[in-house]
Design goal:
The complex is a heterodimer.
Chain A lengths: L1 H31 L4 H12 L7 H11 L6 H13 L14 H36 L4 H13 L4 H15 L17 H38 L2 H8 L4 H12 L1 H13 L6 H7 L5 H9 L3 H29 L7
Chain B lengths: L1 H36 L16 E5 L23 H5 L4 E3 L6 E3 L7 E2 L5 E5 L14 H12 L7 H7 E8 L2 E6 L11 E2 L9 H4 L18 E6 L5 E6 L7 H6 L6 E5 L4 H9 L5 E2 L4 H10 L3 E2 L15 E6 L9 H9 L3 H8 L15 H17 L2 E4 L2 E3 L2 E2 L2 H11 L8 H8 L3 E2 L3 H10 L3 E2 L5 E2 L7 E6 L4 H17 L2 E6 L2 H10 L4 E5 L45 H11 L6 H16 L4 E5 L5 E3 L3 E2 L26 E2 L3
The chains are: A mainly alpha, B alpha+beta.
Chain lengths: 332, 651
């Protein structure tokens, strides 16, 4: 009871406030941009279609009504919350009249699937490899591994991804150039293999950079822990190396890495724009990008709300779980 | 011992896991290739159709909306290519040769003498893909539905113009108009798109703003078969009764059994896809990407098989535009000075590879328009004289420019025509002289001075700085901006280029938030002598003038340069009363172009060019310069008449 009142409840309130403020700011910011979805529509229409100048004003008013942009900003804001409570994010203004929820539903599984799996894999690989490299710092393989990953890390992601495309889609054309899978979605092995085949190159590109990044951090953190008294005593006491590495070093360097993982998982919902561009992979990064360009208020709101909720929830979970991971944190 | 074991076990685990991760997708790659290979050999297309049965088309962009064919909703479902595959309208103008095509209409429209009534005879024997015959009821339903549903494409226009639409019989439609309009039929005549027909038996009773029309009952040669929910590709299947749709009726040919539109991404992905023979025709590439593709892929080519390779007849031009609501660009002498400080030969050869045609007027130097405008106007262009101050005059037109571009091309080892007419057809008729000395005189005449570093100062003594806006994804326009930056800096003007994404670029143009723009598209012509309608002269009338800060698009105007020219207004007014095929329309069009040039309203640089590139590995028959059967602009609605010409490459 004390835990709920003094620890969990304030954090839950904070979580709700973060989402409320975040959503409100996201509502306001696009409306301050010089672009306007109605004017964007008129631009697009006039660039391809015979339009009569005298018809423009009535067309503009009709579009404004159609997009639900009539009324004052406050009225629009209230309508937004009223819709959101019912799980409706409105129609996309750049892909009218497709509901924002449908667009997110079509794109989000690809984003979460690719980014989520590569993030967790790269987190585990980076953490374990970095810890081992720090502990066996004088071993030859440790130097080689550090050399390779430290070299990969500063390579711009776009270049790395493009090299993968050139090598494995052009010179050795093993992998497809576009999409997340072939054929109709099904539970068949062939479809599953097709998903793996399509995601292989983007996954490798993300894994390389992600692993290198976390390797460098893990090695530095582990280096500090190795020099600490408990590890020195454990070495002197002759404990098995496996226990020293995983029970003392890795566990004690884990806390900041858990925070990083949780926040990175929360940020998955923002998508990976460059990955989508280079590998022509489905996801919501491109949707958010085009929504910003088109002043698609509803789409921006939709993706951003997922992101806000994701990050706020991740932060909340870290807060709630910290006492379980770190014995130094206690409920008061 | 423990440490050694841990390390080895760990490394073994890593290797095993890595191998597993690598092998599964490789197995997937093999399986997928085997599945789709069929008779056409291995490919990695996302659909399970034999490669030699499907024509693969470059989808210009990734679609935001999938499985929705309600193309009447603005900013909704995309229309490039697909509008021609499943929709139809009354008439088409072939964008390459200007040929008038009666599609759903059996003949041209006939108007009442006072231009308030238009009668259209419909083609008989056209059927929707579900077997229902297309009749006048569909046309009447379409027009009335669009009229009564605000916000749809053309709804405002139909409401403005159409008093009544009726069907006296199954194959005749009569439009009664609210006011005389000799160009009303242009709403049903396709350049890029037009009023599409709705199937009354499908659309009746639907909410027209939200109806998805998916899968669509088609009036084209194809039906929608499958689509990627994430917008990367769409598959269309040839109708079994393709002879009952207008592409089949008019061309007598079927075309590929399947048509796949696919968005591979940027230029490098398109090059890879075509080099792998996973793409049969693509929209455009930059010069370097095109050369990389064709140098390594013998089956790939563009409009010409040799220099200049590209298709140069798309009906648009590149230009430098100036905000004439802002001094000193409101002064035509200043605009002329900038024109004469521009080396057009250098721009074409150094920045666009010498493959585009020059044009002194904002009408592209297509063979059709060269005959209508450029060549007949050349005597006037040659006699054009401008006052450069101190009683001195100058004739700025230079007919020798095509010869100089041809000479440059020969130096590069390219083959060029040897006869004067061939050179003009290839490179355009001429453009403005590169005369920095005359440009300087024009500026001095208007109070400009130079500082000790040789840089120009405005009449008020402050340094002259020009900031161009340009969109890098419109490759030629961007490169031309960089070219102008180099050339005008040499002339003594501090020039900066602001690179903008397409949307903010358009917004800044429309709201007048710019000084200079390297642009295209504000003045587009059709494949006809009439330059009044569409995005032509009509919306440049000063009654639609839009002050800086307000959007021209929101005002029904394309006059982003914000000029007011009463003489041009008079020409526009006269043209508006004439039918588009009236001989006077051409005379008035030439008058408009003379006014445009005399006042240097925009500095037109080059005609459009596109490296529309085809791969003949699986399909042949796509139009080329040697075989210009139809417009190669396949993403326009008229592309529906191009696809039937394709036949499988013999293997």
């Amino acid at each position: 009871m004390s835990f709920l009142r003094s620890y969990a409840l304030p954090r839950l309130v904070q979580w709700a406030v973060v989402i409320l403020v975040g959503a409100t700011v996201t509502f306001i910011i696009p409306r301050l941009l010089p672009t306007d979805p109605v004017e964007q529509t008129l631009n697009r229409v006039s660039s391809t279609t015979v339009t009569d100048p005298r018809a423009v004003e009535s067309f503009r008013n009709a579009i404004r009504d159609l997009y639900g942009l009539q009324g004052t900003p406050l009225e629009q804001y209230l309508r937004f919350w009223s819709r959101l409570i019912h799980g409706d994010l409105g129609p996309s203004l750049g892909a009218f009249p497709t509901p924002v929820t449908q667009i997110i539903r079509d794109g989000l599984p690809w984003t979460v699937g690719l980014l989520g799996s590569t993030l967790i894999l790269s987190w585990i690989l980076g953490l374990v490899l970095g810890t081992l490299a720090a502990y066996f710092s004088s071993a030859r393989w440790s130097h080689v591994l550090a050399g390779v990953l430290v070299t990969i890390y500063p390579v711009p992601y776009f270049i790395l991804a493009l090299v993968l495309v050139m090598v494995f889609a052009y010179y050795i054309p093993l992998f497809p150039l576009v999409g997340g899978a072939s054929g109709q979605a099904s539970l068949s092995l062939a479809y599953f293999a097709s998903i793996l085949q399509h995601s292989f190159l983007p996954a490798v590109s993300l894994l390389l950079g992600g692993t290198a990044f976390r390797f460098i951090i893990a090695r530095a953190l582990a280096g500090g822990v190795i020099a600490s008294d408990p590890v020195v005593y454990a070495e002197v006491a002759g404990l098995p190396k496996r226990r020293i590495i995983f029970g003392y070093i890795l566990r004690n360097s884990l806390l900041p890495q858990v925070t990083d993982l949780a926040l990175a998982l929360g940020a998955l919902f923002e998508g990976a724009l460059i990955t989508e561009f280079v590998f022509s992979y489905p996801g919501i990064g491109y949707r958010l990008y085009t929504a910003i360009l088109q002043s698609d208020f509803n789409m921006i709101m939709g993706v951003t709300i997922f992101s806000i909720v994701g990050i706020a929830t991740a932060a909340l979970l870290i807060d709630l779980l910290y006492p379980l991971v770190d014995p130094r944190v206690r409920y008061r | 011992m423990a440490g050694s074991t841990t390390r080895r076990a760990f490394l073994r685990g890593i290797i095993a896991a890595g191998s597993g991760l690598a092998i599964v997708p490789l197995l997937g790659a093999t399986t997928a290739a085997a599945q789709v290979g069929g008779g056409g050999g291995a490919s990695q297309l996302p659909v399970n159709v034999p490669r030699d049965q499907v024509y693969v088309v470059d989808q210009i962009f990734r679609y935001s909306v999938a499985n929705n064919f309600n193309l009447f909703v603005p900013n909704g479902p995309p229309n490039p290519t697909r509008q021609g595959l499943v929709f139809d309208t009354l008439w088409y103008l072939d964008q390459d040769n200007g040929q008038w095509i009666n599609s759903l209409a059996a003949d041209k429209p006939s108007y009442s003498p006072d231009w308030t009534q238009m009668t259209v005879p419909l083609r008989q024997g056209v059927y929707w893909s579900d077997g229902v015959e297309f009749t006048s009821d569909d046309v009447v339903f379409t027009v009335q539905s669009i009229q009564s549903t605000p916000g749809l494409f053309f709804s405002a226009e139909m409401k403005l113009y159409v008093k009544d639409v009726s069907a006296p019989d199954k194959y005749t439609v009569v439009f009664t108009l609210n006011e005389p309009n000799p160009r009303f039929h242009m709403y049903f005549t396709t350049r890029y798109n037009a009023v599409y027909m709705m199937a009354k038996h499908v659309w009746q009773g639907q909410n027209l703003q939200t109806f998805t029309n998916s899968p669509p009952v088609s009036l084209g040669a194809y039906v929608a078969q499958d689509a990627d929910p994430n917008g990367y590709w769409e598959l269309f299947k040839l109708r079994d009764d393709w002879q009952r749709a207008t592409p089949g009726i008019i061309t007598g040919q079927a075309g590929p059994p399947y048509l796949l539109t696919i968005f591979y991404g940027g230029g490098q992905q398109k090059v890879i896809a075509m080099a792998r023979h996973d793409l049969d025709v693509l929209f455009d590439l930059d010069f370097e990407a095109f050369k990389a593709l064709t140098d390594g892929t013998p089956t790939a080519r563009s409009w010409f098989s040799d220099f200049p390779w590209a298709y140069t007849n798309e009906l648009d031009t590149r230009y430098f535009g100036f905000n004439q609501a802002t001094p000193p660009y409101d002064n035509k002498d200043v605009r002329w000075a900038l024109a004469l400080a521009t080396d057009i030969v250098g721009l074409d050869t150094n920045y666009v590879g010498g493959v585009a045609k020059v044009t002194p007027i904002p009408i592209p130097a297509s063979p059709l328009h060269m005959g209508l405008y450029h060549v007949p106007m050349e005597p006037w262009l040659q006699s054009l004289t401008i006052d450069v101050g101190n009683g001195e005059t100058f004739q700025p037109y230079d007919p020798d420019i095509p010869n100089r571009i041809a000479a440059w091309a020969q130096q590069q080892g390219y083959s060029v025509p040897s006869d004067p007419d061939g050179i003009r057809q290839r490179f355009g008729i001429g453009s403005w002289k590169y005369a920095p000395d005359m440009a300087a005189k024009l500026l001095l005449k208007n109070g400009f001075t130079k500082d000790s570093n040789g840089m120009w100062l405005l009449p008020d003594g402050t340094p002259w700085k020009i900031t161009f806006i340009a969109a890098p994804d419109e490759n030629d326009a961007y490169r031309l901006a960089l070219g102008a930056q180099d050339q005008w800096k040499s002339f003594g003007i501090d020039v900066q280029v602001d690179s903008l994404e397409r949307t903010p670029f358009g917004t800044r143009q429309n709201t007048g938030d710019f000084v200079a723009t390297s642009s295209w598209g504000q003045f587009q012509v059709n494949a006809t002598a009439d330059i009044w309608g569409g995005t032509g002269l009509s919306s440049l009338h000063s009654k639609f003038f839009t002050p800086v800060g307000q959007s021209t698009a929101g005002n029904g105007s394309n006059n982003i340069w914000r000029f007011k020219l009463p003489e041009l207004d008079s020409v526009i007014d006269q043209m508006s009363k004439l039918p588009p095929d009236d001989p006077q329309v051409l005379d008035l069009g030439r008058q408009a172009m003379q006014l445009w040039v005399s006042n240097m309203l925009t500095l037109t640089t080059l005609s459009f060019k596109k490296f529309i590139t085809q791969d003949t590995q699986y399909w042949r028959g796509f139009p080329t310069a040697e075989n210009p059967t139809r417009q190669p602009l396949y993403w326009f609605m008229g592309g529906r008449f191009t696809f039937p010409l394709l036949t499988p490459t013999p293997r």
